[in-house]
Amino acid sequence: MTLSSYLWGLRISVLTMIIAFASVIFYVNPYEFNAIAYMFFYITLFFLVTSFTTLILTHLWYRFVGDEITSTEIRIAARQGMLLGLLACILAYLQQIRFLIWWDMIIVAIAVFLLEMQMLLRRFK
Prior knowledge:
Elements: H1 3-27, H2 35-65, H3 71-96, H4 102-124
């Protein structure tokens, strides 16, 4: 798979996730949320943030590295996108249960950062 076809696939997935997330936001009544509606909300939020940040990070890799982007950089961008999607879902859940305070946000962000650092350092061993 070439880089351009991968980027086009990411762009299409971002647009699909925007439509899916918007449909969950606009067509689900927040006062009648059940478990399935919460599941759809968090799944679409995760995939929207993951695909969008993976697209942005891949674009940044391409801009700074040049034409020599490899599958390793694409995998790193995808992993970082998934971690940021997980971070967004955790923060949204903490806000949902009214437990999100600024230091909780910092603790969760540091935990995700340390997880990414552990994965990057494991690559160099």
